[in-house]
Design brief:
It is a single chain. By secondary structure, the chain is α+β, with helices and mostly antiparallel strands. The chain has eight helices and 16 strands. Helices cover 35% and strands 20% of the residues. A five-stranded mixed sheet has the order 3-2-1-5-8, covered by helices on one side. It has a five-stranded mixed sheet with strand order 4-10-9-6-7, with helices on one face. A hairpin with a 5-residue loop joins strand 2 and strand 3. Helix 5 crosses helix 6. Bound molecules: dinuclear copper ion (CUA). Dinuclear copper ion binds next to loops.
Protein backbone atom coordinates (compact mmCIF):
# COMPACT_ATOMS: atom_id res chain seq x y z
CA UNK A 1 0.00 0.00 0.00
CA UNK A 2 3.03 2.27 0.25
CA UNK A 3 4.60 2.59 -3.19
CA UNK A 4 6.04 6.01 -2.37
CA UNK A 5 8.67 7.50 -0.18
CA UNK A 6 6.76 10.74 -0.56
CA UNK A 7 7.05 12.02 2.97
CA UNK A 8 3.44 13.09 3.25
CA UNK A 9 2.18 9.59 2.47
CA UNK A 10 3.75 8.14 5.63
CA UNK A 11 2.58 11.10 7.71
CA UNK A 12 -0.98 11.05 6.44
CA UNK A 13 -1.10 7.29 6.90
CA UNK A 14 0.28 7.58 10.42
CA UNK A 15 -2.36 10.15 11.36
CA UNK A 16 -5.02 7.85 9.92
CA UNK A 17 -3.82 4.73 11.74
CA UNK A 18 -3.27 6.67 14.97
CA UNK A 19 -6.85 8.01 15.00
CA UNK A 20 -8.21 4.68 13.79
CA UNK A 21 -6.27 2.79 16.52
CA UNK A 22 -7.49 5.08 19.30
CA UNK A 23 -11.04 4.81 17.97
CA UNK A 24 -10.83 1.01 18.07
CA UNK A 25 -9.48 1.02 21.64
CA UNK A 26 -12.23 3.41 22.73
CA UNK A 27 -14.93 1.42 20.94
CA UNK A 28 -13.83 -1.84 22.58
CA UNK A 29 -13.28 -0.20 25.98
CA UNK A 30 -16.62 1.63 26.07
CA UNK A 31 -18.49 -1.44 24.81
CA UNK A 32 -16.84 -3.62 27.48
CA UNK A 33 -17.58 -1.13 30.27
CA UNK A 34 -21.18 -0.72 29.07
CA UNK A 35 -21.57 -4.51 29.04
CA UNK A 36 -20.06 -4.80 32.50
CA UNK A 37 -22.41 -2.10 33.87
CA UNK A 38 -25.45 -3.85 32.40
CA UNK A 39 -24.37 -7.02 34.21
CA UNK A 40 -23.10 -5.57 37.46
CA UNK A 41 -25.88 -3.01 38.03
CA UNK A 42 -28.78 -5.10 36.84
CA UNK A 43 -31.91 -4.59 39.03
CA UNK A 44 -31.58 -8.12 40.51
CA UNK A 45 -28.00 -7.45 41.73
CA UNK A 46 -28.32 -3.78 42.59
CA UNK A 47 -31.98 -3.08 43.54
CA UNK A 48 -31.27 0.42 44.86
CA UNK A 49 -29.26 2.95 42.80
CA UNK A 50 -26.46 4.82 44.61
CA UNK A 51 -26.72 8.60 44.44
CA UNK A 52 -23.18 9.99 43.79
CA UNK A 53 -23.02 13.76 44.05
CA UNK A 54 -19.44 14.38 42.82
CA UNK A 55 -15.99 12.85 42.34
CA UNK A 56 -13.12 15.24 41.74
CA UNK A 57 -10.65 12.65 40.44
CA UNK A 58 -13.13 11.09 38.05
CA UNK A 59 -13.99 14.53 36.68
CA UNK A 60 -10.32 15.47 36.26
CA UNK A 61 -9.61 12.15 34.50
CA UNK A 62 -12.48 12.36 32.02
CA UNK A 63 -11.54 15.93 31.16
CA UNK A 64 -7.77 15.57 30.93
CA UNK A 65 -7.46 12.18 29.18
CA UNK A 66 -9.80 12.97 26.25
CA UNK A 67 -8.11 16.39 25.89
CA UNK A 68 -4.72 14.73 25.59
CA UNK A 69 -6.07 12.21 23.07
CA UNK A 70 -7.68 14.94 20.94
CA UNK A 71 -4.54 17.09 21.09
CA UNK A 72 -2.43 14.10 19.98
CA UNK A 73 -4.84 13.47 17.07
CA UNK A 74 -4.60 17.12 16.13
CA UNK A 75 -0.81 17.07 16.33
CA UNK A 76 -0.38 14.12 13.97
CA UNK A 77 -3.06 15.51 11.65
CA UNK A 78 -1.20 18.82 11.59
CA UNK A 79 2.11 17.12 10.79
CA UNK A 80 0.50 15.40 7.78
CA UNK A 81 -1.24 18.60 6.70
CA UNK A 82 2.01 20.58 6.82
CA UNK A 83 3.76 17.96 4.71
CA UNK A 84 0.97 18.26 2.12
CA UNK A 85 1.03 22.07 2.07
CA UNK A 86 4.79 22.73 2.04
CA UNK A 87 5.95 22.61 -1.57
CA UNK A 88 9.71 22.23 -2.12
CA UNK A 89 11.42 25.02 -4.06
CA UNK A 90 12.57 22.73 -6.85
CA UNK A 91 9.03 21.62 -7.70
CA UNK A 92 7.87 21.64 -11.31
CA UNK A 93 4.56 23.44 -11.77
CA UNK A 94 1.69 21.95 -13.74
CA UNK A 95 -1.53 23.88 -14.23
CA UNK A 96 -4.64 21.79 -13.74
CA UNK A 97 -7.94 22.79 -15.25
CA UNK A 98 -10.98 20.77 -14.32
CA UNK A 99 -14.10 20.81 -16.41
CA UNK A 100 -17.09 18.61 -16.96
CA UNK A 101 -15.77 15.95 -17.35
CA UNK A 102 -12.08 15.89 -17.90
CA UNK A 103 -8.77 17.10 -16.58
CA UNK A 104 -6.35 19.24 -18.57
CA UNK A 105 -2.76 19.38 -17.40
CA UNK A 106 -0.72 22.25 -18.80
CA UNK A 107 3.06 22.39 -18.50
CA UNK A 108 5.44 25.32 -18.26
CA UNK A 109 6.27 25.12 -21.98
CA UNK A 110 2.58 25.29 -22.90
CA UNK A 111 2.17 21.60 -23.62
CA UNK A 112 -1.25 20.28 -22.66
CA UNK A 113 -2.27 16.75 -21.88
CA UNK A 114 -5.19 14.84 -20.42
CA UNK A 115 -2.80 12.46 -18.65
CA UNK A 116 -0.44 13.77 -15.99
CA UNK A 117 3.07 12.79 -17.13
CA UNK A 118 5.76 13.50 -14.55
CA UNK A 119 9.47 12.72 -14.25
CA UNK A 120 10.49 10.38 -11.47
CA UNK A 121 12.17 12.17 -8.58
CA UNK A 122 11.01 15.72 -9.33
CA UNK A 123 8.39 17.18 -6.96
CA UNK A 124 5.30 18.36 -8.82
CA UNK A 125 3.19 21.30 -7.80
CA UNK A 126 -0.36 21.35 -9.17
CA UNK A 127 -1.98 24.78 -9.53
CA UNK A 128 -5.64 24.09 -9.93
CA UNK A 129 -8.86 25.71 -10.93
CA UNK A 130 -12.15 24.79 -12.55
CA UNK A 131 -13.98 26.35 -15.48
CA UNK A 132 -17.47 25.25 -14.51
CA UNK A 133 -18.45 23.61 -11.23
CA UNK A 134 -16.55 22.34 -8.20
CA UNK A 135 -14.51 19.22 -8.85
CA UNK A 136 -11.93 17.58 -6.63
CA UNK A 137 -8.62 16.16 -7.76
CA UNK A 138 -7.97 12.92 -5.92
CA UNK A 139 -4.79 10.85 -6.31
CA UNK A 140 -5.04 8.08 -3.70
CA UNK A 141 -1.45 6.89 -4.21
CA UNK A 142 -0.12 10.28 -3.04
CA UNK A 143 -2.87 10.82 -0.48
CA UNK A 144 -3.83 14.12 -2.07
CA UNK A 145 -7.36 15.34 -2.56
CA UNK A 146 -8.04 18.98 -3.28
CA UNK A 147 -11.13 20.75 -4.55
CA UNK A 148 -10.91 22.73 -7.78
CA UNK A 149 -13.17 25.74 -7.57
CA UNK A 150 -14.30 28.15 -10.31
CA UNK A 151 -12.57 31.55 -10.09
CA UNK A 152 -10.35 30.34 -7.27
CA UNK A 153 -6.84 28.86 -7.23
CA UNK A 154 -5.98 25.87 -5.12
CA UNK A 155 -2.86 23.78 -5.07
CA UNK A 156 -1.44 20.43 -4.11
CA UNK A 157 1.90 18.75 -4.58
CA UNK A 158 3.48 15.32 -4.57
CA UNK A 159 6.82 13.67 -5.10
CA UNK A 160 6.65 10.88 -7.69
CA UNK A 161 9.65 8.84 -6.62
CA UNK A 162 8.45 5.47 -7.83
CA UNK A 163 7.77 4.68 -11.47
CA UNK A 164 4.32 3.53 -12.37
CA UNK A 165 0.81 4.53 -13.26
CA UNK A 166 -1.49 5.90 -10.57
CA UNK A 167 -5.21 6.69 -10.68
CA UNK A 168 -6.67 10.19 -10.70
CA UNK A 169 -10.32 10.56 -9.75
CA UNK A 170 -12.78 13.38 -9.34
CA UNK A 171 -13.93 13.27 -5.71
CA UNK A 172 -16.73 15.81 -5.93
CA UNK A 173 -20.03 14.94 -7.54
CA UNK A 174 -20.14 17.16 -10.62
CA UNK A 175 -22.91 15.90 -12.85
CA UNK A 176 -23.86 13.13 -15.18
CA UNK A 177 -20.38 11.93 -16.15
CA UNK A 178 -18.69 12.54 -12.78
CA UNK A 179 -17.61 8.90 -12.69
CA UNK A 180 -15.91 9.27 -16.08
CA UNK A 181 -13.68 12.05 -14.83
CA UNK A 182 -10.72 9.76 -14.44
CA UNK A 183 -7.14 9.92 -15.61
CA UNK A 184 -3.74 8.73 -14.49
CA UNK A 185 -0.41 10.02 -13.27
CA UNK A 186 2.29 8.41 -15.38
CA UNK A 187 5.64 8.52 -13.65
CA UNK A 188 8.34 8.31 -16.32
CA UNK A 189 12.12 8.19 -16.02
CA UNK A 190 13.64 11.68 -16.41
CA UNK A 191 14.86 10.69 -19.90
CA UNK A 192 11.45 9.46 -21.00
CA UNK A 193 9.84 12.57 -19.60
CA UNK A 194 12.32 14.87 -21.37
CA UNK A 195 11.59 13.14 -24.65
CA UNK A 196 7.84 13.52 -24.13
CA UNK A 197 8.14 17.10 -22.91
CA UNK A 198 10.46 18.26 -25.70
CA UNK A 199 8.05 16.91 -28.30
CA UNK A 200 6.14 20.00 -27.33
CA UNK A 201 4.10 20.43 -30.43
CA UNK A 202 3.37 17.34 -32.38
CA UNK A 203 1.60 19.76 -34.65
CA UNK A 204 4.56 22.11 -35.00
CA UNK A 205 5.42 20.93 -38.51
CA UNK A 206 1.88 21.34 -39.69
CA UNK A 207 1.50 24.64 -37.83
CA UNK A 208 4.66 26.02 -39.41
CA UNK A 209 3.52 24.95 -42.89
CA UNK A 210 0.17 26.66 -42.45
CA UNK A 211 2.02 29.80 -41.38
CA UNK A 212 4.16 29.61 -44.50
CA UNK A 213 1.09 29.18 -46.68
CA UNK A 214 -0.37 32.23 -45.01
CA UNK A 215 2.80 34.28 -45.40
CA UNK A 216 2.74 33.76 -49.17
CA UNK A 217 -0.98 34.36 -49.39
CA UNK A 218 -1.74 30.85 -50.67
CA UNK A 219 -4.74 30.33 -48.44
CA UNK A 220 -6.64 33.25 -49.94
CA UNK A 221 -7.24 31.12 -53.03
CA UNK A 222 -6.52 27.53 -51.92
CA UNK A 223 -8.48 26.06 -49.04
CA UNK A 224 -7.07 23.44 -46.70
CA UNK A 225 -10.37 21.74 -46.07
CA UNK A 226 -11.46 20.64 -49.52
CA UNK A 227 -13.71 23.53 -50.42
CA UNK A 228 -13.19 24.93 -53.89
CA UNK A 229 -11.81 28.46 -54.21
CA UNK A 230 -10.19 30.63 -56.84
CA UNK A 231 -7.72 27.76 -57.07
CA UNK A 232 -8.06 24.07 -56.25
CA UNK A 233 -8.06 23.03 -52.60
CA UNK A 234 -4.79 21.77 -51.13
CA UNK A 235 -6.50 18.98 -49.28
CA UNK A 236 -5.59 15.54 -50.59
CA UNK A 237 -3.86 17.11 -53.54
CA UNK A 238 -0.80 14.89 -53.32
CA UNK A 239 -1.13 11.78 -55.46
CA UNK A 240 -4.34 12.98 -57.11
CA UNK A 241 -4.81 12.73 -60.86
CA UNK A 242 -4.99 16.12 -62.51
CA UNK A 243 -6.02 17.38 -65.91
CA UNK A 244 -3.66 20.25 -66.74
CA UNK A 245 -3.49 22.74 -69.62
CA UNK A 246 -0.14 23.83 -71.13
CA UNK A 247 0.51 27.39 -72.32
CA UNK A 248 0.08 26.21 -75.95
CA UNK A 249 -3.47 25.12 -75.19
CA UNK A 250 -2.90 21.35 -75.22
CA UNK A 251 -3.97 19.42 -72.17
CA UNK A 252 -2.77 16.22 -70.51
CA UNK A 253 -3.32 14.16 -67.42
CA UNK A 254 -0.71 13.86 -64.66
CA UNK A 255 -0.35 12.64 -61.13
CA UNK A 256 0.38 15.33 -58.52
CA UNK A 257 3.72 13.96 -57.33
CA UNK A 258 6.47 15.84 -55.54
CA UNK A 259 8.15 17.34 -58.66
CA UNK A 260 4.75 18.50 -59.90
CA UNK A 261 3.93 20.19 -56.57
CA UNK A 262 7.20 22.13 -56.78
CA UNK A 263 6.56 23.15 -60.39
CA UNK A 264 2.99 24.14 -59.54
CA UNK A 265 4.27 26.58 -56.90
CA UNK A 266 7.25 27.91 -58.83
CA UNK A 267 5.62 28.22 -62.27
CA UNK A 268 1.88 27.54 -62.06
CA UNK A 269 1.02 28.69 -65.58
CA UNK A 270 3.20 26.00 -67.18
CA UNK A 271 0.75 23.30 -66.10
CA UNK A 272 -2.50 24.97 -65.20
CA UNK A 273 -5.15 22.81 -63.60
CA UNK A 274 -8.06 22.57 -66.01
CA UNK A 275 -11.05 24.65 -65.04
CA UNK A 276 -9.15 27.40 -63.20
CA UNK A 277 -8.13 30.84 -64.41
CA UNK A 278 -4.38 31.54 -64.81
CA UNK A 279 -4.29 34.10 -62.00
CA UNK A 280 -1.59 32.67 -59.75
CA UNK A 281 1.77 34.40 -59.88
CA UNK A 282 4.92 32.31 -60.30
CA UNK A 283 6.77 31.96 -57.00
CA UNK A 284 10.12 31.29 -58.70
CA UNK A 285 12.63 33.56 -56.95
CA UNK A 286 10.08 34.69 -54.35
CA UNK A 287 9.88 31.65 -52.16
CA UNK A 288 12.93 30.42 -50.23
CA UNK A 289 14.10 26.84 -50.68
CA UNK A 290 13.32 26.20 -47.05
CA UNK A 291 9.77 27.46 -47.28
CA UNK A 292 9.21 25.56 -50.51
CA UNK A 293 10.34 22.39 -48.79
CA UNK A 294 7.99 22.99 -45.85
CA UNK A 295 5.05 23.58 -48.21
CA UNK A 296 5.72 20.53 -50.35
CA UNK A 297 6.24 18.39 -47.25
CA UNK A 298 2.91 19.53 -45.88
CA UNK A 299 1.18 18.86 -49.16
CA UNK A 300 2.61 15.35 -49.14
CA UNK A 301 2.03 14.41 -45.50
CA UNK A 302 0.32 17.36 -43.88
CA UNK A 303 -3.23 16.15 -44.09
CA UNK A 304 -2.29 13.13 -42.01
CA UNK A 305 -0.18 15.18 -39.57
CA UNK A 306 -3.02 17.62 -39.16
CA UNK A 307 -5.50 14.83 -38.57
CA UNK A 308 -3.33 13.24 -35.88
CA UNK A 309 -2.72 16.63 -34.28
CA UNK A 310 -6.47 17.27 -34.31
CA UNK A 311 -7.25 13.98 -32.63
CA UNK A 312 -4.50 14.47 -29.99
CA UNK A 313 -5.71 17.99 -29.36
CA UNK A 314 -9.34 17.00 -28.95
CA UNK A 315 -8.29 14.35 -26.46
CA UNK A 316 -6.01 16.72 -24.56
CA UNK A 317 -8.69 19.41 -24.41
CA UNK A 318 -11.22 16.94 -23.08
CA UNK A 319 -13.61 17.22 -26.07
CA UNK A 320 -13.76 13.47 -26.43
CA UNK A 321 -15.06 12.98 -22.90
CA UNK A 322 -18.37 14.58 -23.88
CA UNK A 323 -18.44 14.07 -27.65
CA UNK A 324 -17.97 10.51 -28.82
CA UNK A 325 -16.33 9.68 -32.13
CA UNK A 326 -18.31 6.49 -32.73
CA UNK A 327 -21.90 7.70 -32.79
CA UNK A 328 -22.79 7.11 -29.13
CA UNK A 329 -24.30 9.98 -27.17
CA UNK A 330 -22.49 11.23 -24.10
CA UNK A 331 -23.18 14.72 -22.79
CA UNK A 332 -22.85 16.38 -26.18
CA UNK A 333 -23.61 15.42 -29.76
CA UNK A 334 -21.36 12.78 -31.28
CA UNK A 335 -18.65 13.94 -33.66
CA UNK A 336 -19.24 11.06 -36.01
CA UNK A 337 -20.69 12.39 -39.26
CA UNK A 338 -20.86 15.85 -37.76
CA UNK A 339 -19.58 17.51 -40.91
CA UNK A 340 -22.48 18.65 -43.04
CA UNK A 341 -25.05 17.19 -40.64
CA UNK A 342 -28.18 19.23 -40.28
CA UNK A 343 -28.68 20.35 -36.70
CA UNK A 344 -31.46 22.11 -34.87
CA UNK A 345 -30.10 24.84 -32.67
CA UNK A 346 -31.68 27.13 -30.12
CA UNK A 347 -30.65 30.75 -30.05
CA UNK A 348 -32.39 33.14 -27.68
CA UNK A 349 -35.19 30.65 -27.29
CA UNK A 350 -35.77 30.40 -31.04
CA UNK A 351 -35.19 27.18 -32.88
CA UNK A 352 -33.69 26.95 -36.31
CA UNK A 353 -32.06 24.31 -38.43
CA UNK A 354 -28.66 24.78 -39.98
CA UNK A 355 -25.91 22.77 -41.58
CA UNK A 356 -22.83 21.99 -39.51
CA UNK A 357 -20.34 23.54 -41.86
CA UNK A 358 -16.89 24.92 -41.18
CA UNK A 359 -18.07 28.27 -39.83
CA UNK A 360 -20.68 26.73 -37.59
CA UNK A 361 -18.25 24.20 -36.15
CA UNK A 362 -15.67 26.89 -35.39
CA UNK A 363 -18.32 28.93 -33.61
CA UNK A 364 -19.56 25.84 -31.77
CA UNK A 365 -16.06 25.30 -30.37
CA UNK A 366 -15.08 28.89 -29.67
CA UNK A 367 -18.42 30.13 -28.36
CA UNK A 368 -20.74 27.17 -27.82
CA UNK A 369 -23.38 29.14 -25.93
CA UNK A 370 -24.50 31.02 -29.02
CA UNK A 371 -26.10 28.22 -30.97
CA UNK A 372 -26.85 25.42 -28.57
CA UNK A 373 -27.86 22.17 -30.23
CA UNK A 374 -31.44 21.41 -29.21
CA UNK A 375 -31.78 18.82 -26.49
CA UNK A 376 -28.37 19.34 -24.88
CA UNK A 377 -27.47 21.25 -21.74
CA UNK A 378 -25.38 24.42 -22.11
CA UNK A 379 -22.43 23.11 -20.13
CA UNK A 380 -19.60 23.35 -22.63
CA UNK A 381 -17.06 26.06 -21.78
CA UNK A 382 -15.91 28.41 -24.56
CA UNK A 383 -12.57 27.50 -26.16
CA UNK A 384 -11.60 30.95 -27.37
CA UNK A 385 -7.92 30.41 -26.58
CA UNK A 386 -7.42 27.91 -29.41
CA UNK A 387 -5.20 29.20 -32.20
CA UNK A 388 -6.40 29.16 -35.83
CA UNK A 389 -3.97 26.29 -36.51
CA UNK A 390 -5.39 24.28 -33.63
CA UNK A 391 -8.93 24.88 -34.85
CA UNK A 392 -7.83 23.83 -38.32
CA UNK A 393 -6.49 20.53 -36.91
CA UNK A 394 -9.70 19.90 -35.03
CA UNK A 395 -11.76 20.57 -38.12
CA UNK A 396 -9.56 18.24 -40.10
CA UNK A 397 -10.14 15.52 -37.53
CA UNK A 398 -13.89 16.09 -37.43
CA UNK A 399 -14.03 16.02 -41.19
CA UNK A 400 -12.24 12.67 -41.17
CA UNK A 401 -14.93 11.32 -38.84
CA UNK A 402 -17.54 12.17 -41.42
CA UNK A 403 -15.95 10.33 -44.31
CA UNK A 404 -17.27 6.99 -45.52
CA UNK A 405 -15.76 4.21 -43.43
CA UNK A 406 -14.67 6.56 -40.67
CA UNK A 407 -14.63 4.77 -37.36
CA UNK A 408 -12.84 7.34 -35.27
CA UNK A 409 -9.67 5.32 -34.92
CU1 LIG B 1 -15.68 16.39 -11.65
CU2 LIG B 1 -16.86 14.92 -10.29
Amino acid sequence: MLPQNFDAVAKVDFAFYFIFGISIILLLGITAVAGWFVYRYHHSRNPKATDISGNLWAEVAWTVIPTIIVMAMFYYGWVGYKALRTVPDNAMTVKVTARMWSWVFQYENGKRSSVLYVPQGTPVRLDMTSVDVIHSLYIPAYRIKMDTVPRMDTYAWFNPDTRGSYDIFCAEYCGMKHANMISTVEVLTPEEFEAWYADANASEGAGRAIQVFETYGCLGCHSLDGTDGVGPSLKNLYGATRQVVMPDGTSRELVADEPYLRRAILDPAAELTAGYAPVMMPYEGTVSDDDLKVMVQWLMHGNQVSLDAGRDLMMAEGCISCHSTDGTMIAGPTLKNIWGRSVTVVENGKERTLTADRDYLIEAIVDPSRNMVKGFDPIMPPYEYLTPEQLEHMLEYMRSLSEPGADGQ
